[in-house]
Write a structure and sequence with these properties.
Two copies of one chain form a homodimer. Chain A is mainly α and 156 residues long. In chain A, 56% of the residues lie in helices and 3% in strands. Chain A has a two-stranded antiparallel ribbon with strand order 1-2. In chain A, a hairpin with a 5-residue loop joins strand 1 and strand 2. In chain A, helix 1 packs across helix 3. The longest helix of chain A is centred in the middle third of the chain and has 35 residues. The first copy, chain A, is elongated and about 70 Å long. The interface between A and B is large, with 81 and 79 residues. Chain A binds a DNA duplex (30 and 30 nucleotides) through helix 2.
Chain lengths: 156, 156
Amino acid sequence: MNIGEAAKASGVSAKMIRYYEATGLIPAAGRTASGYRVYADTEVQMLRFIRRSRDLGFPVEKIKELLALWRDRARHSADVKHLAQEQIDGLEKKISAMQAMKETLQHLADACCGDNRPECPILADLGNGPGHLHRQDDAGSGQGPLAQSGRRRAAG
Amino acid sequence: MNIGEAAKASGVSAKMIRYYEATGLIPAAGRTASGYRVYADTEVQMLRFIRRSRDLGFPVEKIKELLALWRDRARHSADVKHLAQEQIDGLEKKISAMQAMKETLQHLADACCGDNRPECPILADLGNGPGHLHRQDDAGSGQGPLAQSGRRRAAG
DNA sequence: CTTGACCTTACCATCATGGGAAGGACTATG
DNA sequence: CATAGTCCTTCCCATGATGGTAAGGTCAAG
């Protein structure tokens, strides 16, 4: 199997297979006399493992550890579970952060009429800094830089 | 105000202020005779706007549009709302993807005893590819590359 | 032998951010 | 004035995972 076939079979692009090899995530593949990389089923299986791990959001560094455990017939499943839990926790943290962003934006968007008038609580909030969700009546005063910022350079 | 003070006042690092200037997100700051950048409240306000937008996940390119609307006293709030909605949609998409990852991982982790034995449905799943959540009894057969994959590197 | 599809390496770009080096500017203290 | 320390300047490099492209070699089919 050459790299293109291995790519198709594993779902990992040829580009990434070479990258994983270059960075030491996978061992160097065998080569034909003319320099083509060759892959056997074992390698493809490893690539699929990597692909799946990436799909679950694991960074390559963590996949390195997962692969080591995968290969280790004497591993402790606790170690694997620990890695998984770390990943879950990391995902949860990111999800929460994005959820918070989304909710803030949703509140702001809900308060914006979205018509052809310039008044906009979204811009008002962005301009005023955080924590102004309840001051929508303020919309119309605190929006906009109030001037084109006449670049008065206080030279010296 | 020099760049360090503006950074403190706005929450944007000096490094990023220079970056925003270099990439055209903000206009070039004024300079003292000796070359130091100087900032007035207006600029700091703009930096806070940027900071807050970043905190809500907007990419710099979108912030460019938001800033243009912020400055435009004849803007239509609909345009702002549209940008916000795009951002909300993007966040929701990412959240869903990460939520799916997290749930898959959680199922796998729940099925893993997490002790000192090597059997591990997490590794089994990663090795077998997607869609094997119900085949935990398989754990113990499909895990591991079955060999150290006799790395026959045909002499590069 | 030519054509086309594939392989090889090597370099560049992303996106937003930080780190660091080399050198100049300002401030406070002797 | 000298010196130390903190800040500023520009320039280059690194991140993480991925794609793109270019220049050149290889293989299979006609």
